[in-house]
From TrEMBL:
Alphabetical GO biological process terms: defense response
InterPro entries: Apaf_helical, NB-ARC, P-loop_NTPase, Plant_NBS-LRR
Signal peptide residue numbers: 1-16
Keywords annotated in UniProt: ATP-binding, Nucleotide-binding, Plant defense, Signal
Residue ranges of domain NB-ARC in the record: 158-328
Top-level taxon of the source organism: Eukaryota
Name of the featured protein: Disease resistance protein RFL1-like
Length: 476
């Protein structure tokens, strides 16, 4: 009799082990509605968490970060399980539509309920994983080369572009110097080199292509900070540790293949002092620099010099038409004849052709074109020697300035001279400055005032008096 309790407990254990899975399976048909409801609720919670994480990723990407692999895989898993849940829900809806919610189809109910229960467990696990991310994004690695914005069509530069590209493939050439008068297209050519390399990057195999502007009065430490930013180095903005900056830049670049595109040099700079290794063609370490002065090329020890000349008449006309627009030029045969005269007054200087062309893009009457010819001629014949001789493009800038529609916009433009040459000005900062000087009136709302200021900036850009800054949508 003493063995009866012992055997009784064994039987109870065996029966429980048999009943638990059996009860689970017997419960599936009964719980089909409840399992589907829970699956729907938790799927919505998972989708809400997915939307929150995607929003965080979007913010991070705007700050030049990239999503981590774990976050990427999690989002892919969520997308996959959403599709699987839809299949189960569709099967349940179809069964209800055909047989009714209280159908006696036990096997069908069992199959759907079991699938829903298994999927619910996976959804809950994914939901928990999504809440365990400590960090969903990391700093985005800097690209080896970035596309440079070019404000106008590149016309008449193909031969010089091809010539420079050949020099870049020549192991005997380390430094290429491009020189010519202001407005002849040196900056556009440098940007064209950059963008050509971007399109065919694998052929040139550079680790870094760095395009920066030196400009007049540029300090060595500013060049160091610009270069460091482009190649992903962090340097403290402290002029007292310039030597440390030099070695930091040098140590990173000395074993790298790099191309430094250095624009608008006004005087020689000490490349070694900046931290640039001695250019070496055989190691694919090269520099292309632009300057207005041939002597700067000599003092920088360039291996080959290229002088940029004004474009040929046919190319000048194409560039001018492109800036004015075909519609304006072809609106009247007499306007086309006058347009050719205006084009000739620009003497083949690309910047002048673009400045004047865009300024005339909305002029559709003979009187406006005749007045433009007279204005350009008067500027050539009169005015001080500084305007006529110091810089050939000054008269065309003056022309674009003179035809601005109101004095307020002219005064706003002149304030830009308070920033250093080549400096990118934040649009918001510029409008704030205009407001502070009383040049930009305060409207009904501050948003209206900013919108009016931004519109004025766009008008100055269309007149070719301002151009996009380093961050094209935020700076000029």
């Amino acid at each position: 009799m003493a063995l009866l309790p012992f055997f009784g407990s064994i039987v109870a254990v065996v029966l429980s082990q048999l009943w638990n899975p059996l009860g689970l399976h017997l419960g599936y048909p009964v719980k089909v509605g409840g399992n589907m409801k829970k699956l729907t609720i938790f799927t919505k919670r998972l989708q809400a968490r997915r939307d929150d994480i995607k929003a965080q990723i979007d913010i991070a990407e705007r700050r030049h970060k990239t999503r981590k692999h774990k976050a990427k895989e999690w989002l892919q898993s969520v997308k996959a399980i959403e599709g699987e849940v839809k299949v189960i829900k569709h099967a349940y809806d179809e069964r209800c539509r055909c047989c009714g919610e209280f159908s006696l189809d036990i096997i069908g109910k069992h199959r759907i309920s079991r699938r829903a229960a298994k999927k619910l467990k996976q959804v809950m696990e994914l939901f928990d994983r999504g809440g365990a991310f400590e960090e969903i994004a990391v700093e985005l690695p800097l690209p080896s080369i970035e596309e440079m914005p070019i404000a106008s069509a590149v016309i008449g530069m193909q031969s010089n572009l091809e010539k420079i590209l050949r020099h870049l493939e020549d192991d005997k050439v380390g430094v290429v110097g491009v020189w010519g008068m202001g407005g002849v297209g040196k900056t556009t050519l440098l940007k064209s080199i950059n963008n050509h390399l971007l399109a065919d990057f694998e052929s040139f195999c550079y680790d870094h292509v760095v395009c920066i502007a030196a400009s007049k009065g540029c300090k060595l430490e500013n060049l160091q900070l610009d270069i460091a930013e482009k190649i992903g180095l962090y340097l403290k903005q402290d002029s007292s540790i310039t030597t440390s900056h030099t070695s930091t830049i040098f140590n990173l670049l000395k074993n790298k293949k790099f191309l430094l595109l250095l624009d608008d040099l006004w005087e020689p700079i000490d490349l070694a002092g900046v931290g640039i290794p001695q250019p070496n063609g055989t190691r694919n370490q090269k520099i292309v620099l632009t300057t207005r002065f041939e002597k700067v090329c000599g003092n920088m020890g360039v291996h080959t010099k290229i002088k940029l000349e004004c474009v040929e008449p046919d190319n000048a006309w194409e560039l001018f038409k492109n800036s004015v627009s075909e519609d304006t030029v072809n609106s009247d045969a007499r306007i086309q004849s006058l347009a050719r005269k205006v084009c000739r007054r620009c003497s083949g200087l690309p910047l002048a052709l673009i400045f004047v062309g865009r300024s005339m893009s909305t002029k559709r009457t003979l009187q406006e074109w005749e007045n433009a010819i007279a204005s350009l001629e008067n500027m050539r014949l009169s005015g001080n020697s500084c305007m006529k001789d110091a810089h050939p493009v000054l008269s065309t800038i003056r022309f674009s300035y003179d035809i601005l529609e109101d004095e307020q916009t002219k005064r706003c433009f002149l304030t830009c001279a308070l920033w250093p040459e080549g400096y990118s000005i934040w649009k918001v900062e510029l409008v704030d400055f205009w407001m502070g000087l009383g040049l930009q009136p305060i409207r009904a709302t501050i948003e209206d005032a900013y919108n009016e200021g931004f519109s004025r900036i766009e008008r100055l850009k269309k007149a070719c008096l301002l151009e996009d800054g380093d961050v094209s949508d935020k700076e000029v």
